[in-house]
Design a protein that fits this description.
Length: 329
């Protein structure tokens, strides 16, 4: 366990904004985590910092979860919360085991992944999820959450809602498959990327396709500070969709099983003229309107202020409310 007073958080978040926390404690085992929680019960929890915008100095201790280890039992893989998610995906693909390949190259840690039920290219984490272990912040007991108990939803889970700030996730178990025909290749970009491949497709083909698409399309936080999609895609009722569609017949839309319709937030933001906009060092990415960026030296408050302006303009233009996907500190 390391415990550093007045630590700079910029190197630990992908937005890279400057902010100091009261102390930064890094834990490598469950016992160290318990000890840290016992000493600092009001601590904030940090994984890879790829879904957090720090808007001011943090008047709390911050516990960085760095538990390591990956183990395979039959077709179930269990990874400790501090493992990098992409390393877990790569490890599985190297064993020729499928299930996680569409979620390749998502930044961050294994422990944070269930928080928002990470998803990409037609797959969400819940599809292969078996269970997780988590330490309760008050009792310090380690408990198991099965899939049903996690209440997964679109980019959400019990850990963002009813059980918010109550648990620290310590490990995640996923169900893998050795059947290559269970591949998810219908997402448009993936299908196009795989057009050149000859059948039969392998798990590695899908993994490499997703990696190639992401490298080409998405801003790399190592080059430009960002936290991926700043807002969630809004899911609107049929009446709202029909109003927007009558004014903008070209609006992309994804009907949901319950009659609601998912709209791409990137399209709504782009229609309001934000793509590539810059307010000082805070900006909107010039190819991905949903990604806010730190061009260098932006403060978290400046990025948040830009986000609020974008939200207001989408509300004014479409009467649709955007909700941040990024966690604001
Ligand atoms: P952090 O940012 O450190 O934390 C996120 C939240 O989880 C915080 O509230 C934190 O307190 C909490 N938390 C972290 N670890 C734990 C733990 N062990 N126990 C309890 N709480 C914890 N997301 C997607 O869903 N799909 C994508 O395709 C995707 N693409 C991205 C692309 C880019 C370029 C970037 C920068 C981000 C992207 N994201 C995507 C968002 C992000 O990578 C994920 O949400 C990721 O799971 C966050 O992991 P993290 O370890 O960085 O979490
Ligand atoms: P895209 O392919 O340009 O599509 C835009 C949006 O439309 C996506 O957000 C996606 O929703 C939705 N969409 C596209 N095809 C769909 C389908 N067949 N069914 C349902 N919804 C569909 O998206 P992109 O920006 O290049 O991102 C590609 C994938 O990576 C997406 O799945 C996206 O979620 C993920 N991603 C996430 C983040 C993040 O930080 N959360 C950042 C980068 C990329 P979904 O988002 O629900 O998939």
């Amino acid at each position: 366990m390391t415990d550093v007073e007045h630590a700079q958080l910029a190197p630990f978040t992908t937005f890279g904004v400057s902010a100091v926390c009261e102390r930064l404690i890094t834990v490598g085992t469950v016992d160290e985590l318990r000890e840290a929680l016992r000493r600092y019960p009001d601590a904030r929890i940090l994984g890879g910092g790829s879904n957090i915008l720090v808007t001011q100095n943090v008047e709390h201790p911050v516990i960085r979860v760095a538990l390591r280890g990956i183990a395979l039992d039959d077709l179930r893989v269990t990874a400790a919360a501090g493992e990098r998610w992409h390393d877990l995906v790569t490890w599985c693909v190297d064993q020729d085991l499928g299930g996680l390949e569409n979620l390749a190259l998502i930044p961050g840690t294994v422990g944070a992944a269930p928080m928002q039920n990470i998803g990409a290219y037609g797959v969400e984490q819940e599809q292969c999820f078996v269970q997780l272990t988590a330490v309760h912040r008050q009792t310090l007991e380690e408990v198991v959450f099965t899939k049903d108990q996690c209440h997964f939803g679109y980019r959400t889970s019990i850990f963002k809602e009813e059980a918010r700030d109550q648990y620290v996730i310590t490990s995640v178990t996923c169900q893998l498959t050795d059947h290559p025909h269970r591949l998810h290749t219908s997402y448009k970009d993936v299908a196009e990327e795989l057009l050149q491949h000859h059948a039969p497709l392998t798990i590695r083909d899908v993994y490499e396709a997703v990696v190639a698409i992401r490298r080409r399309k998405l801003p790399d936080p190592a080059e430009i500070g960002n936290a991926g999609s700043f807002f969630k895609n809004p899911v609107v009722d049929a009446e709202t969709f029909s109003r927007i569609h009558s004014q903008h017949p070209e609006v992309p839309s994804y009907p949901q099983a319950d009659g609601t319709v998912k709209l791409p937030a990137a399209w709504l933001i782009d229609q309001c003229g934000w793509k590539g906009a810059r307010h000082g060092a805070a900006g909107v990415h010039d190819r991905q309107a949903l990604v806010l960026v730190n061009h260098g030296g932006a403060t978290g408050a400046e990025i948040l202020s830009l986000a609020l302006e974008i939200r207001s303009s989408v509300q004014a233009h479409f009467d649709v409310e955007l909700h941040p996907e990024v966690n604001i500190w």
